[in-house]
Write a structure and sequence with these properties.
There is one protein chain. By secondary structure, this protein is of the alpha/beta class. It folds into 2 domains: about 210 residues, FAD/NAD(P)-binding domain (3-Layer(bba) Sandwich); about 150 residues, D-Amino Acid Oxidase, Chain A, domain 2, CATH 3.30.9. The protein has 9 helices and 17 strands. The strands form 2 sheets. Strands 3, 4, 5, 6, 11, 12, 13, 14 and 15 form a 9-stranded mixed β-sheet that branches. Strands 1, 2, 7, 8, 9, 10, 16 and 17 form an 8-stranded mixed β-sheet that branches. Helix 1 runs parallel beside helix 6. The longest helix has 22 residues. About 50% of the residues are buried. The model has no long low-confidence stretch (mean pLDDT about 95).
């Protein structure tokens, strides 16, 4: 097959992790080609709620904790320069959230969260009594017994962030090819080219960052890449009165309400193990609305403006896969960030770029090596 392009590194996947990897590689002077079948941020990275919470979630505290904290710091260090450089303003900001308590049995888990926030610089958390919650507008449900206020997490537009990473790489030594990867050419444990339907791309290294579709590489690399899709549906609602916009984000009743700059309230998200099904379902919409109304009855009178679906890449242990592909000299995996993909993308991108260029990184990636699944 004839070669039509060459690059130091080919990154397969145009989501947040792939574009962050391209960003850091280009900063190191490598020529980078992103190959993406549909376009930058057209999958989960473009439809995420964009919440950055490094202190709680699956694997935190635990194996994901150090990576999450470092990535949160990297986010804040690069925001101003990335916006100035590209002109892509993804509007990062600190946000306040109230976790609503409907049952007394929820107190211990929320008290653990309060203690975690209390010990971290740049974060704060305290209990709100029912009388304080009753003063919040729009009114919350009378079922709410208590609330835990937290401040210090961040929010941003994940689609614009991902495009900013890609744009920065393109402005240096980057290139974007829209198309399907159909295989690789290799010699002596090294990939020499990535094959697409339009021809082959000669390369010095390859990064697989294709999210839920990462397992497609198993056949080409003859290794195990156990990444599967977790479907998530979100609805975006518009309250009838602009004077009743909430002053906080809210968690409760199994869902979250996120305030957005355009005045919409995002309600999400479902977690569905249904393979690669990306259809909108009435059942999910009903579930999200029912629980949103339980939190904030005013939503009963809102308009559903948009209903989105995305697939998050998860692994059997819910930890990402970061590192050199077993048995290969110049292939790296960067995938499986699950529900923390936007939070983790700078650290995962930097770690992968470091490994490609120098085979060493200061990012704490212990426990994420692909070898654990072989």
């Amino acid at each position: 097959m004839k070669s039509f392009h060459s690059s130091d590194v080919v990154v397969i996947g145009g989501g947040a992790s792939g574009c962050a990897t391209a960003y850091y590689l280009s900063k190191k002077g490598a020529s980078v080609t992103i190959v993406e079948r549909e376009g930058i941020a057209t999958q989960a990275s473009g439809y995420s709620a964009g919440m950055l919470n490094p202190l709680t979630g699956i694997g935190i505290p635990g194996g994901l904790q150090n990576l999450a904290k470092m990535s949160f710091r990297l986010h804040q260090e690069l925001w101003n320069s990335l916006i100035d450089e590209t002109g892509f303003n993804f509007h990062p900001e600190k946000v306040s959230t109230i976790d609503l308590l409907f049952e007394e049995s929820e107190i211990p888990s929320l008290e653990n969260i309060r203690k975690t926030y209390e010990t971290e610089d740049g974060f704060e958390s305290y209990w709100l009594e029912k009388s304080e919650l009753d003063a919040i507008k729009p009114s919350l449900s009378p079922e709410v017994k208590k609330g835990l206020y937290t401040w210090g997490n961040c929010s941003l537009d994940s689609m614009i962030l991902t495009k900013a990473f890609a744009n920065s790489a393109m402005n240096l030594l980057g290139f974007l090819i829209t198309g399907n990867v159909t295989g690789i050419e290799s010699q002596g444990g090294r990939v020499t080219a990535v094959i697409t339907r339009d021809g082959k791309i000669d390369c010095g290294a390859v990064v697989f960052a294709s999210g839920p579709w990462s397992a497609e590489g198993e056949e080409w690399l003859n290794i195990c890449i156990p990444v599967t899709p977790l479907k998530g549906q979100i609805i975006r609602t518009k309250l009838q009165s602009v004077e009743t916009q909430p002053s906080h984000d809210f968690n409760g009743s199994g869902i979250s309400l996120y305030r957005k700059r355009d005045g919409l309230i995002w309600v999400g998200a479902t977690e569905e193990n249904v393979g690669f099904d990306q259809s909108q379902t009435a059942e999910a919409k009903r579930h999200l609305l029912t629980n949103a109304i339980r939190i904030m009855p005013e939503i009963k009178n809102s308009e559903v403006v948009i209903h989105t679906v995305c697939l998050r890449p998860i692994t059997p242990d819910w930890l990402p896969i970061i590192g050199k592909a077993p048995g290969w000299e110049n292939v790296w995996l960067n995938t499986g960030a699950g529900k923390k993909g936007i939070l983790l993308c700078p650290a995962m991108g930097k770690a992968t770029a470091d490994l490609v260029v120098s085979d060493n990184t200061d990012v704490p990636i212990q426990g994420f090596d692909p070898i654990r699944f072989q």
